[in-house]
Amino acid sequence: MLADFDYFFAQCEELRNPSIKDKPVVVGVYSGRTEESGAVSTSNYVARKYGVKSGMPLFLAKRKLEGTDAVFFKVDHEYYDQISDRIMQIFRGYATSLEQVSIDEAYLDVSEQVEGSFEKAQDYGQKIKADVKAKVGISFSIGVGANKLVAKIACDSQKPDGLTIIRPEEAEAFLAPLAVDRLLGVGKKTTVRMEQMGIKTIGDLAKFDCQRLIEVFGKVMGIYFHNAANAMDNEPVAEQGEAESISRIGTLKQDTRNLDFILQKTDELTEYVFKDLTERNLSFKSVSIYVVLVDLSCKNRSVTFEQPAKDKETITKNVRTLFEKFLGESTLEIRRVGVKVSGFHKEELHQKQLTLFFQ
Ligand code: TTP
Ligand code: CA
Which residue CA neighbors atom 8 of ligand 1 most closely? Predict the structure, then answer.
């Protein structure tokens, strides 16, 4: 099962400004050179109706939306990250394993939960969607298939708020009419090459002689293309390994060298780090700070203890000491700050895996 959040950055902005929901919403990255320069990260579906697309220059998006009550936002990664984390956490409760692919996309292995039934997967998908909607307020699309490849294409086929189930016996017919570039690994060059060979759709590719594909694209890719077009994929939903560290980074409201001002921000970040830490029941042996200065150079400072710690005060206290020292060593103003804990207790990690195993 693949879940992909709908028009994610723009939906996050709608979430904290409900009154803009029916207006065109554009989230952009401003390059900072002039007021107007930059590109569209994403937009809501209202703005898409006017032809706004990801990657488009902002001035062009503005022109397309001229005369409408469109609203523009600057990307706020911290906020989107927090929302994404909360949803991923909910997903964990529904899946045997979770593979997060990006900030707004994750594969969930739910085969055990739905006992291999695609019928049950339909209800299960609805249940997850309703739960996330109620708890976080974000909608997303789900694709269900016998493997990751089919789940992904199923998900893309119906957005936003989609739930598309492709049963194993339907998979080949579902893929057949689609353009080959819908397959992962088929880029512009490959598309052109395949077109020269008379292959336009995934169906054309599925029927194409596998030996010939190997001659043209090499053994690894040739076999992959052949299998993928025939809806065959054995990639497991691979859980990312237990994190080596937990960190949060934030931008200061203004560039500063004022310790209290900085600590106000790092205390906020520490709250999030500490929350993650307690959720995973980990103790740590190192605390680090991360600093981005006004000239955009980055610096790290850290401290490691003999004995592992578990409490929030150890983080706040050491972050303060590290910043006091850092400010004594550098003269530039600070723009962004981060807090990190690491050096997790090995036995504890091991213990955790064992408990998970025996649950
Ligand atoms: P997508 O999943 O590609 O797009 P989306 O979530 O905005 O819209 P939908 O899934 O409903 O089609 O990308 C996820 C986020 O990544 C998106 O909200 C913003 C960001 N992004 C960029 O910053 N630049 C880009 O060019 C793209 C495509 C996405
Ligand atoms: Ca998305």
Answer: 7
